[in-house]
């Protein structure tokens, strides 16, 4: 009987081998030449490796493969191995996204290897997709940073390969924004956008009705003119289960050698077809995509390609489905050729939850200090590039490249999000600091050059040294703390990177109140002195030691405040000197402390007033005497206790996930000590909510908003409870569950509490599930008031109750949330690794009250001012023997600078003290922002202009705007203007858009208002609402 069974088994094997084929221990050439076959299910195999530019390891550790005890990953091996594998078979393909890695690899390759790669790229075997410096996050990033990092990567691809990426490949970010779809998708020139992460409830609904693939119209303004085909993967960005072939993984290979045991060709072919049919059931048309790769795969590429070669060969021999090597470009071309109608998607895919009680809304706030530093340096990078362009081309010297590189890396979806390991985050910050230091040298050199020449003259070598104060927010500024001799002045130059005239209040630390401030015309400027508070002094003492290793011998006593007025894209100079007589002068005012006498304390030197209760110490009302807007409002601090999981659900709150332990936050303090400081320029209200929360609310004379400075930390955890700290503003307003948040600082999107427009939401987390990312502002409105809050960095925000806005400002959590980072979000700051404290964060938010429908002008204008703070530089002149003691403590002796202590008359006679680099009679329209002005390596200039308003947002400013380039670049002759795509890698006229049918659409929509072509004779650029236009200029 056993012999009979064995004989039958052998016959069966022989029949299978006859049907599928096999290898009798000899070489076989697998047929991998298949392409699309009509009438069959086509399985597009897309080989890829998802390579984070930092997460568990730093970018350089990931590149070279070091620190593998944390994670075995080496991108250098991936690229080496993939190129060799592609050369072996011309049908094989591979797609690559992260240009920060590719640039590192490319620079190390021989000319022969580089030429080989160019051939692979030209043949379509190696394709760049996405092509940014990183795969940026879409929740916590600002649109200008998204553009900059994409431009950096696209520029490398264009310069080395003359290629333009067609595919948006955002496969891992934790939710997806409307701005990504229309601006960083369609306006960049992508034909399609692909990603994995959408809400688990949304995914289930879309799989059921085959709407994973949609036409996404992310812009209400541009509609179908900026739509993009969007492919949401059925599950994750890896292959179906059982088809991951990394050499270190445990997988079942195709065993087709009949001389060996475990021949399994039929079994594996059936596995393949079963998985393909399962995916075909949730998508439309006869084309499906398999994403053949995961994190840092293809370190030995042949392990993958050998298996895919076999599957393509045997699956196609079977004939039930058709498999072949493909790319997202080929896949989308095939989808488009089907000419069917697709579901429509609007708005965004935020927030994201991957399962019940697991909303990825904590990362909107995680690592707020990193978020604030990156946002501050973004505006600084913009200003540095402007000044380098304005000063003129120089053959050598510092550049802004390192800062651009560091900012490009930190936009990564595990960097700015705050979801990398601490040592990796430290690496991001170090790169930012090094880049900022070099950009500071760029600015110093440019300003020295610009102020030392008369308009129209040539810029000579810098003769001045400037210093800046990167720790000004904690009152550390050596240049302003040094004694100023009688008859001499400290010279301060303020540069305005905006294209409009601007007034602002400057705050610098000084050691005496006996100073007078004069502008460049010699007029005395009103000044106000405010005592330095103890919280700031303590911050200064600890962090100067922690960051710089210094312990300054003296502490400034006052903040010196004065108003500056600056021209567009220009500067003004101010001179600070000792007053002729001691004490208060007509123009210098030492602030007085208010002594509350009444139940209600009114503050505000201008039109905007705030009322505080002297009993509770808290805000009770805001009103504007000019507009008549009056709203009862309370503001306080609370915290959500972080969940550590429970018996029913072990999900904890962590770096990614916000899961409060219960829906109600804990009030930090119901009665708050209050101190009021009054002056002619600014009124301040100091509130100490606890030993670890301090707030200063400032009302400026000529501003119609409140500036709130918060200092939070170290968050106490000695009770064993992680805490997620919010500021909560409660206004007497009927908002009907509705609030509005920005998309990456650009468009505003209507949000409705406990609601999603695309599916019926099952509410499991009533707080975390209603949080959204804020990069510019959040606002609520009713029939009487529009209440807005602007932020200075990315943060999570919500309206959990009607009339209420809350912002999460800081988080300290004691447990990991099990999403891979493997450590709790418990940031520390240390002095020499011995004295460590939990992270303290200082930042600002801004409150505005307006009549309904009129708040947009304040949000847009103030938002630009927040993004682009003034650049302050303090002048030093070589040769004067007056070494600043504090400065000498900061720098080695070889870098010591000398303080300018010269007469104002001498300075004004030999320097340009106040000027706009535009025509003196011109400024940009108030609805247009200059978001890029940069000199490129070939001497041309990259110019981007952005219209700031949506249609209908403002009666005056939601209109066509015009920018006169001849006036903007006065003194230069523009020889050529070439309009480019958003990332400047192709001419606008060369961009091609795919045509798609949308399900249920019958009527054509109105055409959006866009600017027309630029006439070479008048050189006027038109911009319609929300339009961004990019140009290359030659002079």
Would you give an account of this structure?
The chain is an alpha+beta fold. It is 25% helix and 27% strand. It contains 20 helices and 52 strands. It has a ten-stranded antiparallel β-sheet. Strands 24, 25, 26, 27, 28, 33, 36, 39 and 40 form a nine-stranded antiparallel β-sheet that branches. A hairpin with a 3-residue loop joins β29 and β30. α12 (368-391) runs parallel beside α14 (422-451). The longest helix has 30 residues, at 422-451. It starts with a helix and ends with a strand.
N- to C-terminal distance:
93 Å
- Biggest beta sheet attributes: 10 strands, antiparallel
Low-confidence segments, ≥5 residues, pLDDT <50?
Answer: 4-14, 878-900
Q: Give the spatial strand order of the biggest sheet.
A: 23-29-30-31-32-43-38-37-34-35
Number of strands: 52
Average residue-wise pLDDT:
93
Counting DSSP H or I runs of 4 or more residues, the number of helices is 20
Radius of gyration: 31 Å
Which structural traits does this protein have?
1035 residues; alpha+beta; ten-stranded antiparallel beta sheet; nine-stranded antiparallel beta sheet; 20 helices; 52 strands
Compact description:
The chain has 1035 residues and is of the alpha+beta class. It has 20 helices and 52 strands.
Topology:
Elements: H1 2-20, E1 41-47, H2 59-64, H3 75-88, E2 94-96, H4 99-107, H5 111-122, E3 126-128, H6 143-161, E4 167-169, H7 178-186, E5 192-195, H8 200-208, E6 213-217, E7 228-232, H9 265-280, E8 287-292, H10 301-318, E9 321-325, H11 328-337, E10 341-342, E11 344-346, E12 353-355, E13 358-359, H12 368-391, H13 401-410, H14 422-451, E14 464-467, H15 478-481, E15 490-496, E16 502-510, E17 515-518, E18 524-525, E19 527-531, H16 534-548, E20 558-566, E21 570-578, E22 588-590, E23 592-594, E24 600-603, E25 608-613, E26 619-624, E27 630-641, E28 666-667, E29 674-678, E30 682-690, E31 693-700, E32 706-712, E33 723-731, E34 738-743, E35 747-752, E36 772-774, E37 777-781, E38 786-791, E39 795-798, E40 804-812, E41 828-831, E42 835-838, E43 841-850, H17 855-867, E44 871-877, H18 885-890, H19 904-910, E45 914-916, E46 928-935, E47 941-947, E48 961-964, H20 965-968, E49 976-980, E50 997-998, E51 1020-1023, E52 1028-1034
Parallel strand pairs: 1-8, 1-9, 2-3, 4-5, 5-7, 6-11, 10-50, 19-22
Antiparallel strand pairs: 6-7, 12-13, 14-44, 15-21, 15-44, 16-20, 17-18, 17-21, 19-20, 21-45, 23-29, 24-25, 25-26, 26-27, 27-28, 27-33, 29-30, 30-31, 31-32, 32-43, 33-40, 34-35, 34-37, 36-39, 37-38, 38-43, 39-40, 41-42, 46-47, 47-52, 48-51, 49-52
């Amino acid at each position: 009987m056993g012999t009979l069974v064995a004989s039958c088994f052998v016959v069966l094997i022989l029949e299978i081998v006859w049907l599928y084929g096999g290898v009798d221990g000899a070489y076989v050439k697998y047929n991998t030449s298949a392409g699309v076959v009509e009438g069959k299910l086509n399985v597009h195999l897309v080989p890829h490796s998802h390579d984070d530019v930092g997460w568990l390891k730093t970018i350089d550790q990931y590149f070279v493969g070091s620190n593998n005890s944390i994670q075995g990953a080496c991108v250098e091996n991936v690229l080496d191995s993939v190129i060799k594998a592609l050369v072996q078979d011309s049908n094989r393909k591979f797609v690559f996204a992260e240009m920060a890695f590719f640039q590192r690899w490319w620079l190390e390759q021989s000319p022969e290897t580089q030429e080989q790669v160019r051939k692979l790229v030209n043949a379509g075997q190696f394709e760049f997709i996405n092509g940014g410096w990183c795969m940026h996050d879409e929740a916590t990033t600002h649109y200008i940073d998204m553009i900059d990092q994409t431009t950096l990567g696209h520029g490398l691809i264009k310069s080395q390969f003359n290629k333009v990426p067609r595919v948006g490949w955002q496969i891992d970010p934790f939710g997806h924004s409307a701005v990504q779809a229309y601006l960083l998708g369609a306006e960049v020139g992508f034909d399609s956008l692909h990603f994995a992460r959408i809400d688990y409830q949304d995914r289930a609904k879309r799989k059921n009705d085959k709407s994973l693939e949609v036409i996404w119209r992310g812009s209400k303004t541009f509609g179908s003119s900026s739509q993009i085909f969007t492919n949401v993967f059925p599950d994750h960005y890896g292959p179906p289960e059982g088809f991951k072939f990394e050499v270190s993984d445990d997988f079942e290979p195709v065993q087709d050698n009949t001389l060996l045991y475990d021949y399994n060709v039929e079994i594996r072919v059936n596995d393949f077809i079963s998985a393909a049919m399962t995916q075909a059931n949730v998508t439309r048309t006869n084309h499906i995509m398999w994403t053949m790769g995961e994190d840092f795969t293809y370190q030995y590429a042949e392990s993958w390609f050998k298996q895919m070669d076999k599957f393509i060969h045997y699956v196609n021999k079977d004939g039930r489905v058709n498999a072949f090597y493909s790319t997202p470009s080929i896949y989308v071309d095939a989808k488009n050729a089907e000419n069917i109608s697709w579901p429509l998607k609007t708005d965004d895919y935020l927030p994201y939850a991957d399962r019940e009680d697991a909303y990825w809304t904590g990362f909107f706030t995680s690592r707020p200090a990193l978020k604030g530093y990156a946002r501050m340096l973004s505006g600084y990078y913009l200003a540095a590039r402007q000044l380098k362009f304005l000063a003129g081309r120089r053959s050598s010297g510092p550049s802004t490249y390192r800062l651009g590189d560091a900012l490009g890396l930190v936009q990564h979806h595990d960097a700015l999000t705050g979801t990398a390991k601490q040592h990796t985050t430290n690496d991001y910050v170090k790169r930012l600091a090094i880049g900022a230091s070099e950009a500071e040298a760029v600015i110093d050199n440019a300003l020295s050059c610009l102020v030392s020449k008369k308009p129209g003259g040539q810029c000579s070598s810098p003769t001045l040294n400037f210093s800046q104060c990167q720790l000004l927010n904690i009152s550390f500024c050596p240049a302003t703390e040094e004694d100023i001799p009688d008859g001499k002045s400290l010279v301060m130059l303020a540069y305005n990177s905006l294209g409009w005239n601007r007034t602002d209040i400057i705050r610098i630390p000084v050691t005496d109140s006996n100073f007078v401030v004069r502008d460049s015309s010699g007029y005395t400027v009103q000044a106000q002195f405010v005592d330095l508070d103890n919280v700031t002094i303590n911050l200064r003492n600890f962090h100067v030691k922690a960051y710089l290793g210094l312990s300054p011998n003296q502490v400034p006593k006052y903040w010196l405040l004065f108003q500056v007025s600056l021209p567009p894209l220009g500067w003004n100079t101010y001179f600070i000197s000792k007053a002729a007589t001691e004490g208060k002068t007509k123009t210098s005012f030492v602030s007085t402390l208010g002594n509350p006498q009444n139940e209600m304390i009114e503050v505000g030197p201008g039109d905007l007033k705030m009322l505080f209760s002297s009993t509770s110490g808290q805000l009770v009302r805001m009103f504007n005497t000019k507009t008549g807007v009056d709203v009862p409002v309370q503001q306080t601090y609370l915290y959500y206790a972080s969940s550590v999981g429970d018996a029913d659900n072990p999900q904890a709150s962590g770096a990614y996930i916000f899961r409060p332990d219960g829906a109600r936050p804990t009030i930090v303090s119901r009665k708050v000590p209050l101190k009021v400081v009054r002056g002619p320029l600014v009124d301040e209200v100091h509130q100490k909510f606890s030993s670890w929360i301090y707030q200063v609310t400032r009302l400026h004379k000529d501003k119609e908003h409140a500036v709130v400075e918060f200092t939070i930390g170290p968050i106490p955890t000695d009770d064993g409870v992680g805490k997620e700290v919010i500021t909560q503003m409660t206004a007497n307003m009927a908002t009907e569950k509705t609030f509005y948040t920005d998309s990456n600082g650009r468009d505003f999107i209507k949000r409705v509490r406990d609601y999603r427009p695309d599916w019926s939401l099952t509410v499991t987390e009533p707080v975390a599930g209603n949080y959204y990312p804020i990069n510019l502002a959040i606002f609520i409105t009713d029939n009487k008031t529009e209440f807005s809050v602007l932020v200075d960095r990315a943060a999570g925000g919500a309206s959990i109750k009607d009339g209420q806005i809350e912002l999460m400002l800081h988080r300290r959590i004691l447990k990991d949330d099990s999403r891979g980072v493997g450590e709790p979000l418990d940031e520390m700051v240390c002095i020499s690794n011995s004295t460590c404290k939990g992270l303290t964060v200082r930042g600002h938010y801004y409150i505005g009250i307006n009549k309904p429908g009129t708040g947009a002008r304040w949000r847009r204008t103030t938002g630009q001012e927040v993004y682009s703070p003034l650049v302050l530089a303090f002048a030093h002149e070589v040769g004067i023997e007056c070494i600043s003691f504090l400065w000498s403590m900061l720098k080695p002796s070889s870098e010591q600078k000398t303080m300018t202590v010269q007469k104002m008359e001498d300075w004004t006679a030999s320097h340009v003290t106040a000027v706009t680099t535009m025509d003196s009679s011109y400024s940009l329209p108030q609805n247009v922002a200059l978001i890029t002005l940069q000199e490129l390596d070939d001497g041309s200039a990259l110019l981007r202009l952005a219209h700031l308003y949506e249609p209908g947002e403002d009666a005056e400013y939601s209109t066509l705007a015009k920018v006169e380039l001849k006036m903007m670049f006065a003194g230069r002759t523009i020889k050529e203007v070439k309009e480019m795509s958003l990332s400047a890698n192709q001419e606008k006229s060369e961009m091609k858009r795919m045509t798609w049918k949308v399900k249920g659409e019958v009527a054509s929509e109105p055409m959006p208002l866009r600017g027309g072509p630029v006439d070479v004779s008048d050189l006027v650029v038109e911009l319609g609402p929300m339009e961004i236009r990019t140009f290359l200029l030659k002079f």
